[in-house]
User: Fold this.
Amino acid sequence: MAERMLQFVRLAQQNPDKRPATQRATDFAEIYARFTPPAAATQASRCSQCGVPFCSIHCPLGNNIPDWLKLTAEGRLREAYEVSSATNNFPEICGRICPQDRLCEGNCVIERDFNAVTIGAVERFLTDTAFAEGWVRPISPARPRPQSVGIIGAGPAGLAAADQLRRHGYQVHVYDRHDRVGGLLIYGIPGFKLEKPIVQRRHALLAAAGIIFHLETEIGPSLPFAALRARHDAVLIATGVYQARALEAPGHDLAGIVPALTYLTASNRVGLGDHVAAFADGSLDARGRDVVVIGGGDTAMDCVRTAIRQGAASVTCLYRRDRANMPGSLREVAHAEEEGVRFLWLSAPEAFLGTGRVSAVRARRMRLGLPDSSGRRAVEPIAGSDVTLPADLVIKALGFDPEDLPAAFDEPALTRNKWGTLAIDPRQFTTSLPGVFAAGDIVRGASLVVWAIRDGRDAAAAIHRHLAATSAATAIAAA
Ligand code: FAD
Ligand code: SF4
Ligand code: SF4
Assistant:
């Protein structure tokens, strides 16, 4: 099935089949089918093998995309998988949930005139094939090392770091306050974007490699941070950001107004088979309700699409800017619109109405003004433009801020920056505390899975350098 490359002039872009909106709106399964091997080879052959591959430059992991596309086109799938997994710990996850339209595919040189190579779908196909064929095996470190590393947080940053450090042979312990591994991969992102067995399969693989998971262990309340530091030769903080931004409009404290992550976590838990009291009693179930979601990011898109799947009577998304200026992926907006979500662009909540429980949202229309100091166009309310929407479930998806980790860890010497995230040396990933490193959203602020993986990998490399230097110094001192 060897294919010649540069076929973009002859072959149209073709993504894997997408299930019809009416069908997918009734379940939480992923919406795309998998490429067949011939389809993957054909689509990979569209790549023009650029000398300067902008796709790779704009992939946060610097994935060697043209090489694995060529190998895929030639049917050399095992080698393609090896190349793709050499720079990415979880390619099957990135292939599913990276906003490719803003990263690799959005910067593919053929995008403008011929539509991009379907990089994400090929990446996903390769790793799914590798799992199916048994090519993905647990790591077996060639040289076990006695030093141990404690990682706080089993999200993508912590897991990527754990994987890398175990490859170096360290004793790796991952602590998480949740009962399952994955961070936002398991309890934030819904199954229709990332089915949970994909995350659980990675957990099993990491555990089989000898990484020890301490679940339901919240550093601070269940295990003091100082005690954790005493246990390990190095510590990595990868705790993410979870403080939901507040909404100050009148009536914001009425019943039926809930934070996005509370809503999504409940839905994901129910999907995983857990009993969730607040879902069972209807508080976090959109069935039959008029739902209004406030926000324009990926989290808001996940909420609107979850509400559709739960059987909401209506789902409206309020966002104060327009479609072109929203932070979320436009692909996700298109999926949501197909599934029946109504978008009210240039609208922001003025007040929540109701007695005891929310029954409506009064929204004001906005217009875009001149760019502000950040370069984004400011929004200005249009006087007298209020509209009232019926709403008996309102979901706030306005973004996340970091919690006060120095307070939570009872460690005032842990330094934060002006945004409240942890201050690190960006080359060494070191915090203000000796032997303590940090990575992922807790450093960057709310970001992307692919950046969390990148940070986890870089932090692991820095920890390895630190521990190697420490053991060399100890050996010299002992000699
Ligand atoms: P997290 O994934 O947040 O993991 C941190 C972990 O640390 C959690 O498991 C938490 O329980 C644990 N933890 C926190 N404090 C403690 C403590 N004191 N003790 C022990 N454990 C602790 N990105 C994309 O690329 N594509 C998407 O489609 C996408 N969709 C998203 C949808 C939603 C709803 C949300 C909220 C985010 C989405 N993101 C998406 C962003 C992405 O999920 C994050 O950027 C990424 O998960 C950050 O990884 P992390 O490892 O830094 O943190
Ligand atoms: Fe594209 Fe993300 Fe894969 Fe990089 S990791 S090639 S950005 S899908
Ligand atoms: Fe291939 Fe597009 Fe990357 Fe060029 S930019 S190497 S065409 S995938």
Notes: The mean pLDDT is 95. The CA atoms of residues 177 and 216 lie 4 Å apart. The two ends are 60 Å apart (CA to CA). The pocket of iron/sulfur cluster (ligand 2) is lined by residues 59, 61, 63, 65, 88, 94-95, 98, 100, 103-104, 119-120, 123, 450 (CB under 6 Å).
